[in-house]
Structures are given as structure tokens and as C-alpha cells.
Design brief:
Two copies of one chain form a homodimer.
Chain A: E1 7-14, E2 23-28, E3 31-35, E4 51-54, H1 57-61, E5 66-70, H2 76-79, H3 82-86, E6 93-95, H4 97-109, E7 118-120, E8 126-128, E9 133-138, E10 147-153, E11 156-160, H5 178-187, E12 189-195, H6 209-219, E13 226-229, H7 235-247, E14 251-255, H8 257-268, E15 293-297, H9 307-312, E16 326-329, H10 338-350, E17 354-356, H11 371-381, E18 385-389, H12 393-405, E19 420-425, E20 428-434, E21 439-443, E22 446-447, H13 452-464, E23 466-473, E24 480-489, H14 498-518, H15 523-542, E25 547-554
Parallel strand pairs in A: 3-5, 5-6, 6-7, 11-12, 12-18, 13-15, 13-16, 14-15, 16-17, 23-25
Antiparallel strand pairs in A: 1-2, 1-19, 2-3, 4-21, 8-9, 9-10, 10-11, 19-20, 21-22, 23-24
Chain lengths: 555, 555
């Protein structure tokens, strides 16, 4: 009997052809480690959906092999699915201190805190299992305590960069561990998976510390209140905004739930240095002169319920925007959020605020590596095989081309799709089959109970509304006892369309007469006839196609 | 009796705090001229709406004063509302030849071609009325034959730039008439209204002719088919793409309805020079070697039904994308369209195409003036008063600041809102009241019959669907004869939620029992009770809030 070839399976269950719900399975014989466990926010077409998580059918099937989750950093698209997935697969979660701090906030909300084993690691730590061992490596990113992960296998190391940038002057002084990448490269890396987010951008991403400089200049001479919106999880950004505020004699108030959640955690764990004597609550802002107030807030993406959006809409209970206020967006709109961000900016302008955003000042830098940084990592790691990850198809293709231009053999590059089983052996890399993958929708308390049919109905309902037709029929005789009653929602404003609705009733009435005459007693036939006549009548009059729901009540 | 002060009213009915549905009323005594008559495409929140046009209540009230529509150029946001509005106010439409050509396509679709008086003008033409006269002035823009408009009044000239850029080397050699702007400025301009779209961008907009150069370089050495997506109305872009194609020995096919509509019109009117011997139909593309095929297509904004989107989705009947195809986006995503544009790009990549878009090559330039061009116009026109137009609030504010920095007195600048009545007199400018303004929704054949309530219902339906509860009651006794039947759409996938739906039925059943017992015979009370119990039951079980529609049938 021929011995099966020794190989490692790499299976991305999320994060491919999307920015979101990152999850990668690394499998060797009877051991599986899972990198990241993220969520994704819904697209416009995912009506009513709260969040999207990866399909973990494969993990459930292979439950016994799983050694744990290994989390690169604390962003939602890397940790957000944990509460949902740990309910199905309770395995240990390994991450650095701050990342675990953020995970704990989530687990607490889901009453999972005492149920799940959490393992704190630090960069350079190696967690050993039977055949696999998992090493955490320091990287820079737009959140503190971010790591890459190297998985050491009998066939060689698999390196996953996580989300990274190369910051030579990070705010906490902790530079990405280029030496370790270099050392791994020297020893030989079997495969590299690397962040593709900014592969379209030439040059280098600016250092986070340049933003601090911008803030210090920007705050100079501002007479009114300053309100800065940024991501709650960007601890170093918060640090720099606070320090610039304090340097200009301002007290600092914080608004927005995620920010109020994260600041104490980051502070307690030593990642954020909060000068308590400078902190005030939003209730206290009116006690200070306007040039002594700095408010740090959520809502930099124009999220409808976030604090800044409420301020802009005049709905914030504590902060009323007024002439003289300066509002700074220390952020860049995530693709898809442009309209809501600009909408918030417009509202703020209309309330008299001065608004400063990325296209007007240098108040934001990206957390992802641009081309030159990506080239640096490839050059240090010199992987035998390369798999671009964390990007849409266009990013992955660009990243593959970048690697090829650096000398990577085309045959050693695999552009993955979610669910692909990528086999890496000593002699090469190839795709071999797929496993279940895709979107699992979270809607309220439901996990996965909203599928294609429900979404299709929501889409139809959103376009032209619904018309319900109810008729009561006598079972025996097949005669109409009452109705037809027609009720519409989201179709036309009924008071303006009384004639239309009355005529629609007559159309149904005619169908019913016809059925009585022909003695049709199959209600499904009757329903179809009602649907068809009403549909064509309404389309001819309005060019709209509401959903039509005929209901027959038998007495 | 004191004589009323002599003044001109300027009333923007659209185009303010929005990019779209441009329309400005200029009124002096018993004369009104209306500049532009555009539509806007719906926002995400305008469920099911096809297009949005301005509220013209004020125009209808003052019908007899209106001398006509004066159209600056042929883009949808300047001409798109004409077919709807001319049905209500039939007044002459004045525009240059190409603009009228595009308007005629629309009027024909609406069977209005023989009903409306169309007046062809050319730049430098002046149309005289009793007290007002309207002058057309050549400008550059991303469509040929674009104009500014000067309205000469007894109090001085009002200059409206329309959409403009300053192109010293336009494709047709027709440079913006800077001399005329200068001359008007020298004589004295009472008020300037100017395009604010690109006021956030520093420097100058590149000349349209630079794009031709990019195409010639880009097409060099491409082996496969080339597919270029751009706006159908950008005639000069089409011209340059065609010429670059022909220069590289390619035949040209055109795909997409608006492109097929516009090309013959532009060609017939002499704005586009089509080399008939190079033109083929999309049916013929497979008869030519791949390196001799160029397809020009619509869909550069990722519009779901456009030709390129269908190609990307594998749904185009004639063009199947394959490895070796090069697809060029000669466009920039309009804010809000980023996701659909990138989605199309990703799909094309997945089909094996090489995709070139703005962030990778210089294949597009804007049609709107950047800061230095805007400063040039202000400096030439030196208006007494200034009104920034054609932009969101943030653009208007920036534009006001730009004018102020050029020396314009703050008191002479008015940042308008739609519906504001701006009075300009010899001694100053001020807002004095408002008229009706806002969105009129077009949905199918309905103009304005969809309002806030219908939209709110569509939004609710889109989020959590609908639950219909039907009960047949005996009128006399108030007893249940049949039901309750519960039917849901867009709420849960019923097969997965049988227990939930059965329990929901029991909840309603209990309410009915209670009502029978208490002999409640007011159906509205009963309906409210059903709604409330079901709502709280479903929320407790699912955290969703479907619309609940109780229907009582009486027998």
C-alpha cells in the first residue's frame, strides 16, 4: 500500500474576496488550528441582517481535531464571530492581552465568560501541540498588540501576517519583529499568507505617530470645542488625541458605547495611559469654557446610531453641535460607507461646525501595509509558496502579481476562494476540493435561520411593498362568504389611490365570479388566478410589482 | 405709498446639498426663467424609487410668468426631469444642439416630442424677453456643447456657470469662453452662481485630451480583446477611445442601451466622428481575432442592469468575459457607487480578465473645475454677490470660504438651501422666506404618489418582513369562525420555524379567547391586542420586529 503523501491543508473559511469574517483553518493529520474568528457587516442586499459570520460546518465535523482559535488582533473582522461560534465549538482561545481584553467584553455580553478557556500569549510565545506549534510574532496595525502567526509543522513553517503595516516609529515603541520574519525566511518558510488590503497603494503607509503631530498643529489656536471621531479600538490614536488635547489645556470627554467600553479595558491593561485629572464626563462639558473642551467620539463611519451621527442629527442628549465647534474625522470611509460619512459631514456643516476630514488634512493613516511594505515582507520571508489573503479578488490578483514580480514562481502562488482546500506538500501547492463555506446570517437572536428565500422576500417587499387579498369561502359550496378584502403596505399611499384599490378589488371579484361559475374548488388554483390577474392589472396601472399574498379562509 | 424695492429673486429648487436634480428659478417682476431641470437617482433609503425630481409647486403657481427652461448641458441631473415636468408646465426648452438632441431622446420615450417647443441655441446667443434676457456662454465639461448662462436684468447680470471645467486643450478645440466671463466681470456682475463639485480638490483638473494619450499607450501591445466602460454622454471620451482603438487596428463594437441611443445622435449632429468602416456589432465580435476587437460599453458605475455588469455576472448574451480580456474603467465611482463598481471589478477578475481602473492608470479625468479653475472664474467675474451651488453642504461651505479668501465680502455670500428665496437688490443680497421644495419620487408610472408613509413601510418590510394574521369572526356573536391563520413573508424561513409559528398562533388564539370571554366586539381593539401580544412574543423569541398586519373577516 502506497503511503499517503505528507501534506498540510490550508482552508480559508472567510476573508477571501471580502474584507471581513476572517477565518483560516490549518490542518495537519489529526490536528487543526484556526486563525481568527471574525464577522462581517452586511451588504446593502442583506436586508435586515445584523452581522454575518463564516459557515463552520467543516469545523463542527472536525471538532475533535481543533486545538483552539489563535487570534491575530482585536478587530471585529477577526474576533467578532467568537461568541456565536464558541457556543457551537468550545475550544480554547489564544491571543495577546489587549486582544483578549476586547474578546472578554464580547463574551461577557453573551454570558460566555466563565465557559470558555482563554489563553493569554505574548509575541515570541510558542504554543506546542503534538505535531503543530503556533508562534505569535509582533506586527504593527491600527490596533495595539497585533500579531502575525507562524505555524510550525513537520513540513515547514506556515506564516500568516494577520493585518499588518511596518511602522518604524509606532506610538508604543513596539516595532514589527522584522528580525523574526527574516529568521524564519532564512530557515525556510513553506507558505506565506499575507494581508492584501492596501496592495493597490504605492509606497509606504505613514507612521501612526505622524497623526499625533497633525493633531498638535491642528488644535493650535482653535477657539471653540473640538470633537474628534475615530475608531474606538485604535488605542494609539486615542492616546495621541488625548495628549494633543491635554497639551492645549483641554479636558477630555468620551462619547459612544464602544469607546466607553474599550478605554477602561485598554487603560487597565496598560495600553492606554489616561490622565485621570484631565477626564470629564459629557455631562460636565458645559461647565468648562469651549476652548478647554475636547470630546472623543464614535461614529467616524457615519454609523446611524453612533454618538457623532446623533450629534449631527441633533439627537444627542448631551452634545449639541453649534457654530464654532470643530469636528475632526480621524478616519477614512470604509468602501460602502462614503455616503453616510459625507451625510454626517454635511449635517455638521449645516449646524455651523467646521469639519476637518481626510481630504482636507492629515488626520488619519491606514493600518495596512502599502506596496513597499508588502514587498519587504515577501523579501524577508522568501516563502516557497504564497497565498494572498485578506482582500477582495482585485486585491488578491494584484498581490499575486506583486509576488510574481518579486520572483515568486507562478506555480507556487494560489489565489484562494473561501472553502478551498489548499494542500501544501514538500513538492508544491495545489487546490484539492472544497468544503462548505459562505455566509451565516445573524438576525436578532437567529443564527442562520435567515436564508436566501427570506432575503429575496425582504428585497421584493422593500421595492414595491405587499398586497394582501383575503377571501372567506364556504368549504362545501365553494361560494364566497365575505371579501375580497385588499390591504396594502408599502405599495401606494391608500388615500391617494382609492380608485386604484377599488378597481383592484373588482379585478379579484371577477376572478372569484369566474371560479364560482366554473366551480373551481382547488384553492391553490384560485390563489394563482387571483395573483396573476391582480399582478397584471397593477402593473398596467402603476408599472410596479408588489408582492401579492392571497389568503383563503374556509368556513 | 412707498415704492417696493427693485429686486431679483433667485430660488434654487434643486441641486443644493445634493449632487442631482438641478433647477434654479430666476424671477424679476412678472418674468421667470428656469435654469436646468434635472433628476437625481435614489439614495439607499428611498426603497423602490426609480428617480427623484424637484418639487415644482412654486413653478405651477407662477406658470404664467415662466419664459422657458434654459438648459446648461445634457446630463441627467440637468435634463432628466423634463419629461415629467413638461407634462405639468409646457413651456419652451432652450439648449444647444447636442443637449437638445439628448432631450429629444427622452421626450420621444414619453411621447412628448411634438408637444413641446424646443429652441436650439448656440453659445453667444441671447434670448430676449421683456425685461430679462438669457445669454449662453461656452464652457468645458465632461459632455460636449455645455454652457454657462448669464441672465441680464435691469439690476445687472446674474451668471450661472453650470457644470464647468477650464480645458485649454479640449478634444473639439472649443475652449471655455473666458473672454466673455472676463467682459461680464468688467461690466459688473450682480451675482455669480458657481459649480462647487470639486472645490475640495487642489490644483487644476487635467485636460480631457490627456486621456486620449493614456489610451493610446494603454492599448499598445494588448493581445486580447479590450473592453472600455465609460459614460455614454461623454462624447469626447468616446471619440478618443474609438480613435485609440482604430490606431491599433481594432474594430469597434458598442454595447449598452444609452450608448446605442447617444452615439447616432451625437454622430448625426456632428459632435462625434464615427468611422463607419471600423464599426461592427457585438454579434460580429467573434468573427475577428481578439487583438482586433474593442468593445465600448455602459456600466462604468456598476449599475446592476448595465452591459458591463451583465458581462461581469456572466449574463450578457453576446459578450463572455475570458482570460486575456482587458477591461478598462474610464470613470471614477460616483460617491455611493464604490461597492457596486468594486463588485463588478472583482467579478471581472474572477472571470480571468485584466482590469484597469482609476487607481491603477490615468484613464479618467473629472468634468468639474478644481480649486485653481474655480479661483480663475471668481477672479474674472468679480461678482458683487456670490451663491455657491451644485454641491453638498460641505462643498458649498468650502466654496464660500474659497470666495472669502479671494476677497469676497462675507455679507455678499449666501449659502443657499433648496427652496430659499434669495433676493438680490442693488444694495445687497439676503434670504427672504422659502417656497415648497423637496423630493418628488417617481416609482413606475407614479409621480409623487409614494410619500413618507409608503417609504417607511418599505423600510420596515425590508428589515424583518411581515406577518399577516387573519381571523374570520361572526358579526353577531363576536365568535371566531375560522382562523387564526398566520402567514409570514421575509421574517423566518417557515420550514425552520414551525414551532415558532405554531406558538405564535397559540398566542393569537389566547387573545381571541380573552376577547370572546370579555365580549369585545370592537375589531380595532381586537386588532391592537393581537398586534401587541404577537409583537412582544416574537421579539422575546427572535429579537425581530416584523410588521404585523391583523385582518378580521366578518361573516
Amino acid at each position: 500500500m502506497r503511503k499517503e503523501k505528507d501534506k498540510i491543508k490550508i482552508i480559508p473559511l472567510g476573508g477571501i474576496d471580502e474584507i471581513g469574517k476572517n477565518m483560516t483553518v490549518i490542518e495537519y493529520k489529526d490536528e487543526i488550528v484556526v486563525i481568527d474568528c471574525g464577522l462581517k457587516f452586511p451588504d446593502d442586499e442583506m436586508f435586515g441582517i445584523d452581522v454575518v459570520i463564516p459557515d463552520i460546518t467543516y469545523l463542527i465535523k472536525n471538532k475533535d481535531k481543533i486545538k483552539g482559535f489563535f487570534i491575530t488582533h482585536g478587530h471585529e473582522d477577526h474576533i467578532g464571530a467568537l461568541p456565536y461560534i464558541l457556543k457551537q465549538i468550545n475550544v480554547p482561545v489564544h491571543a495577546t492581552k489587549l486582544t483578549l481584553g476586547l474578546i472578554k467584553i464580547k463574551l461577557k455580553e453573551h454570558n460566555l465568560l466563565d465557559v470558555v478557556e482563554l489563553v493569554t500569549v505574548k509575541p515570541t510565545d510558542v504554543i506546542k501541540f503534538q505535531r503543530l506549534s503556533v508562534e505569535f510574532i509582533k506586527v504593527n496595525h491600527s490596533i495595539a498588540d497585533a500579531t502575525a502567526i507562524a505555524i510550525h509543522t513537520p513540513l515547514g513553517a506556515i506564516v500568516h501576517t494577520g493585518d499588518f503595516k511596518v511602522d518604524f516609529t509606532p506610538v508604543d515603541g513596539e516595532v514589527i519583529d522584522l528580525q523574526r520574519f527574516s529568521e524564519l525566511g532564512r530557515k525556510g518558510v513553506l507558505a506565506l499568507m499575507a494581508d492584501s488590503t492596501n496592495v493597490e497603494r504605492k509606497g509606504y503607509t505613514l507612521s501612526e505617530s505622524t497623526v499625533g503631530e497633525s493633531f498638535r498643529k491642528l488644535f493650535q489656536g482653535v477657539e471653540g470645542r473640538i470633537i474628534v471621531a475615530t475608531f474606538a479600538s485604535n488605542i494609539h490614536r486615542l492616546q495621541q488625541i488625548m495628549e494633543a488635547g491635554i497639551a492645549h489645556g483641554r479636558k477630555i470627554a468620551v462619547s459612544g458605547r464602544s469607546m466607553e467600553n474599550i478605554i477602561p479595558v485598554a487603560s487597565e491593561l496598560g495600553y492606554l495611559h489616561v490622565d485621570e485629572s484631565s477626564m470629564i464626563t459629557v455631562d460636565q462639558i458645559n461647565k468648562y469654557p469651549e476652548n478647554q473642551v475636547l470630546i472623543i467620539t464614535t461614529g467616524s463611519q457615519g454609523e446611524p446610531m453612533a454618538a457623532l451621527s446623533r450629534m449631527a442629527a441633533g439627537l444627542h442628549r448631551k452634545v449639541q453641535i453649534k457654530t464654532g465647534d470643530t469636528v475632526v474625522f480621524s478616519s477614512s470611509p470604509i468602501p460602502g460607507n462614503e455616503k453616510s460619512v459625507f451625510n454626517t459631514i454635511n449635517q455638521l456643516y449645516k449646524l455651523g461646525a467646521n469639519v476637518i476630514y481626510e481630504s482636507l488634512a492629515e488626520v488619519h493613516v491606514s493600518g495596512h501595509a502599502c506596496q513597499e511594505e508588502i514587498k519587504l515582507i515577501h523579501t524577508l520571508v522568501r516563502p516557497k509558496n504564497f497565498i494572498p489573503v485578506h482582500g477582495e479578488s482585485r486585491h488578491l490578483r494584484e498581490h499575486a502579481d506583486l509576488a510574481f514580480n518579486l520572483g515568486q514562481d507562478r506555480n507556487s502562488i494560489v489565489i484562494p476562494e473561501n472553502g478551498d482546500v489548499i494542500e501544501v506538500a514538500r513538492d508544491g501547492i495545489r487546490k484539492n476540493g472544497t468544503v462548505a463555506s459562505g455566509h451565516v446570517f445573524i438576525d436578532g437572536l437567529g443564527v442562520g435561520d435567515v436564508g436566501k428565500i427570506v432575503l429575496r422576500d425582504r428585497k421584493l417587499l422593500s421595492e414595491d411593498g405587499i398586497i394582501t387579498v383575503v377571501v372567506t369561502m364556504e368549504k362545501e359550496s365553494g361560494m364566497v362568504v365575505s371579501g375580497p378584502d385588499i390591504i396594502s403596505r408599502g405599495f401606494v399611499y391608500v388615500k391617494e389611490a382609492e380608485v386604484l384599490m377599488e378597481n383592484a378589488r373588482l379585478v379579484v371579484r371577477e376572478v372569484l365570479d369566474e371560479c364560482e361559475e366554473k366551480r373551481i374548488s382547488d384553492w391553490n388554483v384560485l390563489k394563482t388566478m387571483i395573483k396573476d390577474s391582480l399582478k397584471s392589472y397593477l402593473y398596467s396601472k402603476t408599472m410596479r410589482k408588489p408582492m401579492i399574498l392571497p389568503i383563503i379562509m374556509e368556513v
